[in-house]
Amino acid sequence: MPVQEALRIKELSKVYRAKAGDVVAVDGVSFEARKGEVTVIVGPSGSGKTTLLYLIGSLESPDGGEIWAFGEDIASPAADLIRYRRERVGFVFQFFNLISALTALENVMLPMDLQAVPGSRQRGRAEELLSRMGIDARLQRAKANKMSGGEKQRVAIARAMANDPDIILADEPTGNLDTATGRVVVDILVKLAREDGKCVIIVTHDEDIVKVADRAFSMTDGKLAPHDR
């Protein structure tokens, strides 16, 4: 599958203002990420990697720089960020961010409901995605608060895929999982890149995840550099 540039980040910066002094969370970061590839950004807690991911996903606004997604600068005031978040980006969070009172199926259907996808299509796609993630029919109807960490994360990935986004942003996706379950989750994310042509960006503190990367970077004190593999 030919690769295609999905994201181009140019001199991106984010500063948090505080009485104790400004904190430069992202400091002049530039890199590219492509469809069909896995980009891994590794760094310790507080290095700015989650802030960088939130900027790319437009959950935070940058103080400077450009974020080009398929030829559109989403850091521009004219960018349609609602459409970008709903159609282009799927998020996978460390703490899953599922709605506990809903079933796995209902959690995956929710993003489609927000896009006004017909109910019959919502259910069919949600069942298909959950089955692909190894969530069987019984678990699909279980409440999220009754599921294990690994099951929740697989549901979260299915939810991220609900509207078939081009970009999957994963924030410490194995942070709350044991080693074996974490490997399963990483394998799923890799398949989404290799088999579905998604642009997958993983930020993590886990150096082992660098092994699956097509592109790897290290982040320290808000600055990004090529990872020395």
Search tags:
229 residues, alpha/beta, Rossmann fold, four-stranded antiparallel beta sheet, globular
Give an account of the 3D structure:
The longest helix has 16 residues, at 179-194. It is globular and about 50 Å long. By secondary structure, it is of the alpha/beta class. 32% of the residues lie in helices and 28% in strands. A six-stranded mixed beta sheet has the order 6-7-8-3-9-10, with helices on both faces. It has one domain (4-97, 157-226): Rossmann fold (3-Layer(aba) Sandwich). The mean pLDDT is 92.
Topology:
Elements: E1 4-16, E2 23-35, E3 38-42, H1 49-56, E4 64-69, E5 72-73, H2 81-88, E6 89-92, H3 104-114, H4 119-132, H5 137-140, H6 149-160, E7 167-171, H7 179-194, E8 199-204, E9 215-220, E10 223-226
Parallel strand pairs: 3-8, 3-9, 6-7, 7-8
Antiparallel strand pairs: 1-2, 1-4, 4-5, 9-10
Helix pairs in contact: 3-4, 3-6, 4-6, 6-7
Q: Could you list the spans in which at least 5 consecutive residues all have pLDDT below 50?
A: none
Q: What composes the largest sheet? A: 6 strands, mixed
Q: In percent terms, what proportion of residues is strand? A: 25-35%
Order of helices and strands: EEEHEEHEHHHHEHEEE
Please report the first level of CATH classification, the CATH class. Answer: Alpha Beta
What is the name of the CATH architecture? 3-Layer(aba) Sandwich
* Secondary-structure-derived class: alpha/beta
Coarse shape: globular
* Number of DSSP helical runs: 7
